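Hi Y.,

Following your request, here is the sequence exactly as I used it, all 229 residues.
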Amino acid sequence: ATVPIAMLAPQRGLADASTASLDGWWLLLVAGIGLVGAAIAFALLPAPGPSVAQAAPPADAPRIPLGDSERVVWSGSAAMPWWIAVAVALAPIVITVVIISASSSSAVMVLGVIVSTVVGGALMALALSPVRVVVDDRGVQTRSPLTGTRRRIPLVEVAEADVVKIGLLNRFGGFGYRVGPGGVGLIVRPGPALRVTRGDGSRFTVTVDGAEQAAAVLNALAARERARR
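Below is the corresponding structure, written out as tokens. Let me know if you'd prefer a different format.
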């Protein structure tokens, strides 16, 4: 919303359209407003409450045989294909070059290229950073630089675990830490993903290699936890 304002404000009152220019500090203002808005939105997000599952996962849900005294830990990871990360990195650079190519100000050109290059490099680093998933008798834990913190769903809240297919065009609207019609997702690549349904019906989806094994282990642990209550 601030980009059109940044482009139109310097043109107010000009008698000759050819004298229009865009000062470099507008780019910093636009980026600052976006960061402040994101920080406010993050601070206003409500913390999720407990959502204890009462019943065991359905009988037809995938699971492994697990004895009462057996312990099992599963871990896996996934990362975005390099060609998608490169496309993500090049996108801001190409857009910036196209926008500022019409500007006659060398300062705007230099600042725009620097900012877009830094942003593009940061996006590629985040896109290539892997997500790691651990399933054990405490529940399921995910860790990724995309979220900055570990996310854990306790075993008592796991109602069911299954596997879903994530495409390039998906219900989460893209890749990253997303919120969509299918719930919350940590989506780093197309392909199989572990989907965890909590006791209140909310869902968390994470793309990980070996999602079928992760779902089977998590269902077995959740079923044993219900039987011990």
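The mean pLDDT is 85.

Thanks again,
Q.
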